[in-house]
Amino acid sequence: MNKFEVKAYGTLAADAPLNEMNISRREVLENDIEIEILYCGVCHSDLHTARNDWGGTVYPAVPGHEIVGKVTKVGNAVTKVKVGDFAGVGCLVDSCRVCESCKQDLEQYCATGIIGTYNGRDKHLGGQTFGGYSDKIVVDEHFVLKVPANLNLAAVAPLLCAGITTWSPLRHWNVRKGSKVAVVGLGGLGHMAIKLAKGLGAEVTLFSRTSDKTKDALELGADAVVISTDGEQMNTVRGKFDLIIDTVPTIHDVNPYVATLNLNGTLVLVGYLGGLEPILNTVPLILGRKSIAGSLIGGIAETQEMLDFCGEHNIVSEIEVIKMQEINEAYERMLRSDVRYRFVIDMASLRS
Ligand code: NAP
Ligand code: ZN
Ligand code: ZN
After folding, report:
1. Could you give the domains of the chain?
2. With a 6 A CB cut-off, is 18 part of the ligand 1 pocket?
């Protein structure tokens, strides 16, 4: 397989900082698109992967799955974009395309396992896939997204993961005008959940741990903010919500949020992966026909639907642009929830 080297930023071990390195990309095949990466968002999953929080990270690891850039080369069979177009790549770069999930445009639930943009199995070059903290990426056109031309490109990048991860449950649970939605945690995913739920016409409440972000949340479109550490405030929203999107990245008590679900309400976990503690009490679930669910990113068609919706409604992420060389400090700030509300790397800094 013909390949070429590109500059990237990655890590060699869970406890090592990210640093400059070279990685290989394949030369475009028939259906491939080569993209010069202009901006890449910084997702909390990048940090979880770099530090092996979930186990299974293969090193060197090059994170980044909120990718936007310019098409620099296309294979002979490509029809989706042409050289010079702007394009996006999210969390997926391949799947089997034939299983029941893939046939339903739910590639994220591919029965044979998805091929993530990073730390996936690179079936072309062998080894692991490398993400968007790099100069260029080569991706099959099925997994490339068209980017709305009217939006700020850097602020579009986070839509490719934070946007679709919150859009998919909003759509699956049929959020519409008048729905009562709550969002737990105001970070990258949380702030997109507020904007997208508002865009769909919902009444939106933010649960945050302190009042530090109240003003921002209201400016982002939230109708109310409830401080989750204040029992009295939590009582005022008992039985209120049709859908709660919980973006908290670490183990936490979900029972207080269940109490705020309406009859038939659902709490969707999108942040934390693993066993819950304290133990989940089923009594309110049974007595109120409530559900606890999970949701993983979104399929390619649904990602395009979300991007088009954002184009029509002028929705983008609130970003702080950083240089590639600032990524280690950005991770530390992310751990302190000191992000307003998504870091986006200007990839020109890697090339300079
Ligand atoms: P983020 O920007 O760091 O935001 C997380 C927010 O959660 C924080 O801003 C904070 O909000 C709140 N929080 C943090 N620690 C908390 C704690 N101990 N208890 C309660 N609240 C806490 O992260 P992100 O990029 O939005 O990602 C969130 C999670 O989603 C990560 O675990 C990521 O891996 C995961 N993720 C999942 C998918 C999926 O497909 N399901 C896709 C992308 C990301 P407040 O300050 O307002 O409390
Ligand atoms: Zn992500
Ligand atoms: Zn499949």
Report:
1. 3-160+318-351 (3.90.180.10), 163-294 (3.40.50.720)
2. no
